[in-house]
UniProtKB/TrEMBL annotation, chain A:
Gene3D superfamilies: Glutamate synthase, alpha subunit, C-terminal domain. It comes from Kordiimonas lipolytica. This is Protein glxC. SUPFAM superfamilies: Alpha subunit of glutamate synthase, C-terminal domain.
TrEMBL record, chain B:
Residues 109-119 have a biased composition (Low complexity). InterPro entries: Aldolase_TIM, GltB, GltB_archl_type, Glu_synthdom. This is FMN-binding glutamate synthase family protein. Residues 109-128 are annotated as: Disordered. Residues 72-333, 358-401 form the Glutamate synthase domain. One of its GO terms (molecular function) is oxidoreductase activity. It is an enzyme of class 1 (oxidoreductase). Belongs to the glutamate synthase family. Pfam families: Glu_synthase.
UniProtKB/TrEMBL annotation, chain C:
InterPro entries: GATase_2_dom, Ntn_hydrolases_N. Keywords: Glutamine amidotransferase, Transferase. Residues 2-299 form the Glutamine amidotransferase type-2 domain. It comes from the Bacteria. This is Glutamine amidotransferase family protein. The lineage of its organism: Bacteria, Pseudomonadati, Pseudomonadota, Alphaproteobacteria, Kordiimonadales. CDD domains: GlxB (cd01907). Gene3D superfamilies: Glutamine Phosphoribosylpyrophosphate, subunit 1, domain 1 (3.60.20.10).
């Protein structure tokens, strides 16, 4: 159990301490206080530790996380858990743009709303948002799953590859090559597992599924207007 | 080729190439996508000449008196700057556009002569990491294959903002080259056309870039240098902003820089020549007193030791080669002439890297074609070529009386044309006239 | 490329501490740019028979009394004034027209940074730390302020090129981002009679807002029209006599965050600039939606976004 007060120690010291933890370290519970919107807090962690951040954070909080379980009791800035590989990041408040951008794995839970480009270019991460997501959510999403319990903004799933999207509320508009798809039993099961993992008490049947129409996978001149 | 009968006059405007392009567009409805760099003539380093020593200066004796070539990159913030034996590095080229054997050969060749090589869009392969003593990890908008483990294995990180062949554009890898392995590395379905992003997904602008650089430094514990690569366009401002954002090294890629697959219109019509861009970058660095403190690597059409020496004289700390390195590996080699003809090309003209049918086994993912490239032999050819470039650079530096290639100066050169004099900011040969000054 | 901060006090009891609350916000944005720094501060309002001019000269020993004497003679009334570093604030009788024409003919080197009943614009080359100290921002009083730290992109690092840019009486604009069509737009606006001092893209945004308002548009209407006419990436914040307005382009890559408590409305490029404000832990925090105009003011509907407003 270690505590770091960012009013007293620098981000560098805290991150170095987190990076110096190795598998099997005794110190697996870390608390960070007074983040004050600072950037790059707990980025590049590479061990199965638990990090609790008490307050709002700036850009790239928990960036490239691997194995760790990171919880932010506040809002997060741009690019929370960007390029995450594994582990869990839970945000109790809202997330700014590009949450979970290009992330390859792990679970990102946002209990508030997520702004624009949530899950942009996602590559395998699971993202569960209790509130709503802004425009261009899952833009160019390659793989992974995104669950939105609230509404989605404009151009949901634009240029989607194989990421699967579940939205409970309204979708303002679908992006190029994104379509609503049938919710089959395996999808209800998948969604239920994601909601359970995120600790969200929602009925999977209330959601709709969206995915790629796969019309832009290879260039066709007839799709001109979509390019 | 049809022979021209007397009296038939070809239009300079609508010549046979143009007519062919229009007909092709009309038939297929798609623009031309190709590899290689700009093919149009632009002012280049050939238009500059060195003033060798005679009475007023003293030359160094070739092969006997030392003329050093080492360079250190990333001295501004990194705990572990990169030390290279020669000021010539291998530019970023992706696994995916190139075969695994080609990537391995680049690593082997670079390592043999003590220089670095660079990953590309699509991530780091074990082959190239294993065979590259110094490996620069590119951090690109698409983030294909990007992961923190490889990031920490890298000797430097190169944040790519743009590329000389297509500043402002994203990458393109057509379906033929998205094989199982490439698809798996990039988390994409097999066989699709992969369109890479032109902008990074989680930052926009140099103010945000400052924070992104700090993140990369935090993740790597401030150990490795961070490069910023830009395509040559508004080079003075871009260099200034790269430095303000916190770069250790600026990589400047002129419009002649190569590509694996880009629209021909982009390759030929966007960006400025390497010759025109380099003095702008140096001017920006000098203005903020960062020349030689933030190192400058220049690429885009470097072929010979003369090109290298001229870049260094204009103020670069090192150069980077891509297309020339592929040629050294065996790209466009006459031994494959019959095969080139089968696919409608010819040795010396082959630029269809996007098709993945490279007879030389370099820009392909076809297992049978790949086998044609022996990474050891090809790596050795590259090493030989790099040695020649280095020796040629030294020959020119010694002739100008320099015991280190970095002591070459713009004042050691004159220009043959008004255009090159204006761009390089050196006087027209035989005069003291620098146009515009 | 820049950092933006804004603070509008709803609780008048805090007006004596405006500068003390605001200076740390500005300084926190130093990482986003330290080429130049500027603020617009509102307060110490003159009655409407007068205007307040902020004038600046690059020579720190400039003969300001001579300027003031000329102004007094020109408008035929005494001028109340004070100096702050290289700038002075002069309270001049009239609507400012006579004063401005006199300044441009007799003192062409003097820059008129702002004009209005309440606004004062102070800006210079240097980091927010340096500029805050230079103009003693922590000691300032007022109703609201907006500020800017600049990382210059394509135009020169000069005091003229620093933000905020005046856009009319009691109006100014700061910008974070990069406009991609400002050259053609500048040429067009010049034809419409808008005067530009620099090649700065943000000045074009300021000139655009001024032009639209001269046409009789409201500030909100001008900003909604800007969404169609300004191409590129931007977060704009416009200071007004009684508040400020915020708009982001429709792609909305450039950051902005808003905070509201019973005591104030604040905006910044990043949350960390807000972290030092009292009661921020319990503030309502949100990001402005892309392509929507938000405005606050004593006369406007406090804290209500005007996103529904459409151009007539």
């Amino acid at each position: 159990m270690s505590e770091y007060d960012l009013q007293k120690v620098s981000i560098r010291e805290v991150n170095q301490a987190l990076h110096d933890l190795t598998d099997g370290a005794n110190d697996t519970e870390i608390t960070i206080s007074n983040p004050g919107g600072m950037h790059n807090i707990a980025c590049g962690v590479d061990s199965p530790v638990s990090v609790k951040i008490d307050g709002h954070t700036g850009y790239y909080c928990a960036g490239m996380n691997k194995l760790a379980n990171i919880e932010v009791n506040g809002n997060v800035g741009t690019g929370v858990a960007e390029n995450m590989m594994s582990g869990t990041v839970r945000v109790r408040g809202n997330a700014s743009q590009s949450a979970g951008a290009t992330a390859h794995g792990g679970l990102l839970v946002i209990e508030g709303d997520a702004a624009a480009r949530c899950g942009i270019s996602m590559k395998g991460i699971d993202i569960v948002v209790k509130g709503s997501v802004g425009h261009l959510a899952a833009f160019m999403g390659q793989s992974g799953r995104m669950v939105v319990c609230g509404d989605a903004g404009d151009a949901l799933g634009d240029s989607l590859y194989e990421a699967r999207l579940y939205v409970k509320g309204k979708v303002k508009s679908l992006g190029a090559d994104c379509i609503e798809k049938e919710m089959r039993p395996e999808h209800l099961e998948e969604l239920k597992a994601l909601l359970d993992a995120a600790g969200m008490d929602e009925d999977p049947k209330a959601f709709k599924r969206y995915g790629s129409a796969r019309q832009l996978y290879n260039f066709k001149v007839d799709n001109m207007s979509a390019y | 080729m049809t022979t021209q009968r007397p009296g038939l006059r070809e239009s300079a405007l609508f010549n046979r190439d143009v007519i062919h392009d229009i007909q092709h567009a009309a038939e297929t409805g798609i623009y031309d996508i190709r590899g290689f760099g700009a093919k149009r003539p632009v002012p280049h380093f050939d238009d500059l000449l060195f003033l060798g020593a005679s009475a007023s200066r003293y030359p160094l004796e070739g092969y006997r008196e030392r003329c050093d070539t080492n360079v250190i990159l990333g001295t501004r913030y990194a705990k572990n700057p990169i030390e290279l034996d020669i000021p010539i590095t291998i530019a970023g080229m992706s696994f995916g556009s190139l075969s695994a054997n080609a990537k391995e050969a680049l690593g082997r060749g670079a390592t043999e002569v003590g220089t670095s090589t660079t990953t590309g869009d699509g991530g780091m392969t074990p082959e190239e990491r294993g065979h590259s003593k110094k490996l620069v990890y590119q951090y690109l908008p698409s983030r294909y294959g990007m992961n923190p483990d490889d990031l920490r294995k890298a000797d430097a990180i190169e944040i790519v903002l743009g590329q000389g062949a297509k500043p402002g554009g994203g990458g393109m890898l057509l379906g033929q080259k998205i094989t199982d392995r490439v698809a798996q590395m990039r988390n994409l379905p097999k066989g699709i056309d992969q369109r890479s992003a032109c902008r990074h997904p989680d930052w926009t602008g140099s103010d945000d870039l400052t924070l992104k650089i700090l993140e990369l430094r935090e993740i790597t514990d401030w150990k490795v240098p961070i490069y910023i690569k830009v395509g040559a366009t508004r080079t003075y401002y871009d260099t200034m902003l790269a430095v303000k954002s916190g770069a250790d090294v600026v990589v400047l890629d002129g419009m002649q820089g190569g590509t694996a697959a880009t629209q021909d219109v982009f390759i030929e019509h966007v960006g400025i020549p390497t010759l025109a861009a380099l003095p702008q970058a140096v001017e920006a660095l000098q203005e903020i007193d960062m020349h030689r403190k933030v190192q400058l690597i220049v690429s885009g059409g470097i072929r010979s030791g003369a090109d290298v020496a001229k870049c260094l004289a204009l103020g670069a700390d090192a150069v980077s080669i891509g297309t020339a390195a592929l040629i050294a590996l065996g790209c466009n080699h006459p031994q494959w002439q019959a095969e080139y003809e089968k696919i409608g090309s010819s040795a010396g003209f082959y630029d269809d890297y996007q098709d993945g049918k490279d007879p030389a086994g370099i820009s392909t993912q076809d297992p049978e074609l790949m086998k044609r490239l022996d990474p050891k032999a090809a790596g050795h050819r590259l090493a030989n070529y790099l040695r020649v470039l280095t020796m040629e650079t030294q020959i020119l530096a010694r002739a100008c009386g320099k015991s280190h290639v970095h002591n070459l100066e713009p004042e050691d050169m004159v220009a043959l044309t008004i255009e090159s004099a204006a761009m390089a900011r050196v006087p027209l040969a035989g005069t003291s006239w620098i146009p515009g000054q | 490329m820049c950092g933006i901060v804004g603070l509008y006090l709803k609780n008048s009891a805090l007006q004596g501490k405006l500068g003390a609350l605001f200076a740390p916000m500005l300084i926190e944005m130093a990482d986003r740019g330290r080429d130049s720094t500027g603020i617009a501060i509102y307060g110490d309002e003159v009655d409407d028979s007068h205007v307040k001019l902020t004038l600046q000269h690059e020579d720190i020993n400039f003969d300001w009394p001579a300027v003031v004497a000329a102004l007094e003679k020109g408008v035929g009334a005494p001028v109340d004034w004070f100096q702050n570093a290289g700038a002075i604030v002069a309270k001049v009788k009239g609507d400012g027209t006579a004063a401005r024409s006199l300044l441009s003919s007799e003192f062409p080197d003097v820059a008129v940074r702002s004009i209005g009943l309440s606004i004062e614009i102070l800006k210079d080359i240097g980091s927010p730390e340096a500029i805050s100290e230079k103009f003693n921002i922590p000691g300032m009083k007022g109703t609201h302020a907006i500020g800017h730290t600049r990382m210059a992109t394509e135009s020169a690092v000069t005091t003229d090129g620093s933000h905020p840019f005046s856009t009319g009486y009691d109006l100014c604009l700061v910008h974070n981002g990069s406009l991609s069509n400002h050259n053609r737009l500048r040429a067009y606006l010049k034809k419409q009679g808008i005067v530009f001092e620099t090649m700065n893209d943000s000045e074009v945004a300021a000139g655009y807002v001024m032009w639209r308002m001269q046409q009789g548009k409201s500030l909100e209407e001008a900003l909604i029209a800007a969404l169609d006419d300004l191409d590129g990436f931007y977060t704009l914040t416009v200071g007004t006599r009684d508040g400020f307005a915020v708009v982001r382009d429709r792609i909305a890559c450039k950051p902005a965050i808003l905070a509201e408590t019973d005591d104030y409305v604040a905006m910044a490029s990043e949350y960390r600039a807000l972290a030092s404000l009292p009661g921020i832990k319990n503030a309502r925090l949100w990001e402005p939606e892309p392509g929507e105009v938000y405005a606050w003011g004593h006369t406007a509907h406090e804290g209500i976004s005007r996103q529904e407003l459409e151009l007539a």
